[in-house]
Structure prediction request, 431 residues.
Amino acid sequence: MLVSSVLPVQINVSKKRYHTIKDLKAFHKHLERMNTMGKKLTDKVTWVGKVDWTLTTFHGEEYSTHKGSSYNSYLVRDKKTALIDTVWQPYDKEFAAHLKDEIDLKAIDYIVANHAEKDHSGALAELMREIPEVPIYCTANGVKSLKGHYHKDWNFQPVKTGDTLDLGDSKLVFIEAPMLHWPDSMFTYMTGENILFSNDAFGQHYASELLYNDLVDQAELYHEAIKYYGNILTPFSPLVIRKINEVLALNVPVNMICPSHGVVWRDDPAQIVKQYLKWADNYQENQITLIFDTMWESTRKMAEAIAAGIQNIDPSVTIKIFNSSKDDKNDIITEVFKSKAILVGSPTINNGYLYSVGGLLEMIRGLKFKNKKASSFGSYGWSGEAIKQISAHLNDAGFSLANDGFRTLWVPDKEAEQKCILFGEDFAKSI
Prediction:
């Protein structure tokens, strides 16, 4: 068994008297250290990252993190010692302090920066103030990115695929992974322990004290993993397939996959690799998603009538309906990723569509979904341009348009609702 368990430590404080506030503060500090101690993955590898329980958004406000996240940093100790990645910048001092509890910083021989974004490299500046000469191994693009972030000329050691770093009994093997999901990204494989440090690949924004994939809620884990892929990695799907096949061709054993966010894959780590290959292959389920915004409920009524029409034709299809101004945008995108077809609706305002619909359309365009059908719908009172504009955006985003869309004047009456149902039926037949 490669993985060692981290057992809870029971502390009996009743027999100890604290005579001063200073004593009590010292005890609380001790407790804090114990709660943030590194967690051993193997005899040679220790997780020394940060679990961010309170994180609610990521990439500014672009990505919702309902379950928090983690910034995974790994300390590798052999005859030589390497630190793989750090944590997000707001936790740099906390990270450095806790790392000192784990190891004398001067005992760190190498730092590996798999990726330069500040959620991975944010504590570098704090560390380099104390160990300025320690070499940093990263890709050539990583050097550019790190210099751009921190404006420091540290001891950079550029690496490319196949380069190795000898730690003693083990080696670190570097594998460039450009555009997964930045130009500077790379993986690091550790021989002997057979661990793939995969950076942003195979991760999730998911906070847990349990650390491993087999210990957490499996439904939560799957949801956060597919949300992560659908919202972040979808545009790079052809590269995902190519890189996974490249790694598989190396024919090396992988006992663990250690990403930069979320849990470590120790139980059947190949399962997440298989999922990525499925998700990267123009993924879709038997699902149709309707997205709308509304001013006076007319477009909502249309969405529900269209959904009823779809179900008349295919009772087995999963239908999901979202209000783009009220529902979480990343949860919507996750459902778009899963869908074989979508419909987007908005009333017409100022000769266009509502802004929440515009934001979703822009996100959809950037994610470059493939092999999905679409259409548009909405109510109007004056001119009704929104439907044509939405269709144009969906077409530009790579969706195959099933028709020219459907619009109705004013609040839909029974006749208009029946037309919406028929529109839904026709749409379902076209899928």
The longest strand covers residues 373-380. The chain has two domains: 21-280, 287-430.
